[in-house]
Design brief:
The protein is of the alpha/beta class and 295 residues long. The chain has ten helices and ten strands. 38% of the residues lie in helices and 19% in strands. An eight-stranded mixed β-sheet has the order 1-2-4-3-7-8-9-10, sandwiched between helices. It has a two-stranded antiparallel ribbon with strand order 5-6.
Length: 295
């Protein structure tokens, strides 16, 4: 695990970014502010990184967090939530909730209410994103203006057909988890429960199995050849049937979370442009004031 974490953190280590990175503590959760030039501190995005709940950090996902700051014209809080196996699965969930509560009332310049709020995450972070927005609704908290989930895991019971059907076409997850797909499902569920002490059917870890009504606008992006394609498709179909404004965009022949390989990958740039349009539609940036126009 340590070697994988180091590798993941160093993939983009030599990249230079047009943004400032500031250490933060969000309600007791370690985090990093990502601020593109001119970022509005009242426009905030909570970014939850992927990495199979066992790896990843704010540093490993800066190609995405810097783009979200630039796209929204606001501040991004990338959280360094507690990872397995040192910590329980529930610890990571609690960190997301604590950070969301904190972000509603705090920006990079101190305590101040958010004017626009977004939540986004990829893979495991997409799972945590979708779990979080249902929790915010049920807790009576202010809902985010929109949420984005990139190639999310939505069913911890691994019931989606593409988990096995796309094992050989998924260039990233296939080699990592292909062997696990051959293990009988009942055994996987048992091992999953032993690891997390949470029933894999519980909506807190399987958002597709929960109440998907009254959700904020959500954009889900996935590759048609990845193992989690049907996780995305099932979630969106169920949410739309429940009346929630959730939409799915898919690309063919893309690796899992291809958006992270921007700006080099054309399809990554295209996907992020779609996300930018979606977020601007959900919470348009304020019009320039007369003062700023004159100056």
């Amino acid at each position: 695990t340590a070697a994988l974490r180091k590798y993941m953190d160093e993939i983009f280590a030599n990249r230079s970014f047009d943004a400032r990175f500031l250490p933060a503590e969000a309600g007791g959760v370690k985090a990093e502010w990502v601020l593109s030039p001119g970022a509005d501190p009242a426009r905030r995005t909570l970014y939850i990184h992927g990495g199979a709940f066992m790896m990843g950090s704010p540093r490993s996902h800066r190609t995405l967090t810097t783009r979200f700051s630039a796209m929204t014209g606001g501040a991004v809080l990338a959280i360094d939530y507690r990872l397995m196996p040192e910590h329980s699965r529930r610890a990571g969930i609690e960190d997301c909730r604590s950070a969301y509560r904190w972000l509603l009332a705090n920006g990079p310049d101190g305590a101040a209410p958010a004017q626009a709020m977004f939540v986004a995450g990829d893979s495991a972070g997409g799972n945590l994103t979708l779990s979080l927005i249902a929790w915010a609704r049920d807790s009576g908290l202010r809902a985010p203006d929109a949420a984005v989930a990139l190639s999310p895991l939505t069913d911890a019971t691994l019931a989606s057909p593409s988990v096995r059907a796309n094992m050989h076409s998924d260039a990233m997850l296939g080699p990592l988890f292909g062997r696990l797909a051959r293990v009988p499902r009942w055994m996987m569920l048992w091992v999953g429960w032993l690891q997390t002490r949470i029933n894999p059917s519980d909506p807190v870890v399987s958002p597709v199995r929960g109440n998907l009504s009254r959700l904020p606008p959500v954009l889900v992006q996935a590759s048609e050849v990845e193992m989690l394609h049907d996780d995305a498709r099932r979630y969106v179909n169920k949410a739309r049937a429940a009346g929630s404004p959730v939409r799915l965009q898919t690309w063919n022949h893309m690796v899992h979370v291809w958006q992270i390989f921007n700006p080099e990958l054309t399809e990554a740039r295209d996907a992020l442009a779609e996300i930018g349009r979606f977020l601007a539609e959900a919470a348009p940036p304020p019009a320039p004031s007369l003062l700023s126009v004159r100056s």
